[in-house]
Amino acid sequence: MISVNDFRTGLTIEVDNGIWRVMDFQHVKPGKGAAFVRSKLRNLRTGAVQEKTFRAGEKVAKAQIDNRRMQYLYANGDMHVFMDNESYEQIELPAASIEYELKFLKENMEVQIMMYEGETLGVELPNTVELAVTETEPGIKGDTASGGSKPATVETGLVVNVPFFVNEGDTLVVNTTDGTYVSRG
């Protein structure tokens, strides 16, 4: 058990028969009444985000999540195959459960698979990934980095707004949290 006063971003807890990751939290001490903790939680099974308020000092169960380093191999119909780098064991995850992550996954890419008591909860991506541009309008001489942006489609099908100087074939560094352009690779 852990006190809600000890919340930190990234902590996993068990609440209401669900496994939740703390995305954000705020300790509130109103002038009148008892202190409380306002939190933003993401359900690791469904991906749903929920705001929940706890009384200060309330205890919740800490969920022990095991992260296993795995390699994304290929898509097999609606299932996606991952292989454990140490045991070479393969697992399949349905496309519906990793819909957002598929926008950033390339074959042979290493990711962390979140496991809870033998149940696969999902894929944890690195903070940024490098993806090649497959389609974008050509840059025009005189366009500058600060002069705006244009859409570019990368190899996974994700559309990213990029500066005008980016061309087809360029490699981009993309933020996996919000799918935004970071830099050229």
UniProtKB/TrEMBL annotation:
Pfam families: EFP (PF01132), EFP_N (PF08207), Elong-fact-P_C (PF09285). It is found in: Cytoplasm. Pathway: Protein biosynthesis; polypeptide chain elongation. Residues 129-184 form the Elongation factor P C-terminal domain. GO terms for molecular function: translation elongation factor activity. Involved in peptide bond synthesis. Stimulates efficient translation and peptide-bond synthesis on native or reconstituted 70S ribosomes in vitro. Probably functions indirectly by altering the affinity of the ribosome for aminoacyl-tRNA, thus increasing their reactivity as acceptors for peptidyl transferase. This is Elongation factor P. It comes from Rossellomorea oryzaecorticis. The gene is efp.
